[in-house]
Write a structure and sequence with these properties.
Blueprint lengths: L2 H21 L12 H17 L3 H8 L13
Helix pairs in contact: 1-2
Length: 76
């Protein structure tokens, strides 16, 4: 899996998680609009990365050794 696909998966997961927590899960009393600030944080981070071409999560994934779509793996 590439950095770009992993990043989209992580962003989607966190957005769905924060919406689920705001809506309440399995009768737990987690319902509070404050959880939606986490969704806003993810959205703002994605928006700023569109303009600056820098995303903290991409830096983390690169440090973990994931490859990018723009740099194909070397053939043996």
């Amino acid at each position: 899996m590439t950095i770009e696909r992993t990043l989209r998966g992580i962003a989607g997961f966190f957005i769905l998680l924060s919406i689920g927590l705001a809506a309440g899960l399995e009768g737990r009393d987690l319902t509070h609009p404050t959880w939606l600030w986490f969704t806003a944080f993810v959205g703002l981070n994605l928006l700023q990365s569109a303009f600056t071409n820098w995303c903290p999560m991409i830096s983390i994934l690169k440090a973990l050794g994931m490859r990018s779509e723009s740099c194909p793996a070397k053939e043996a």
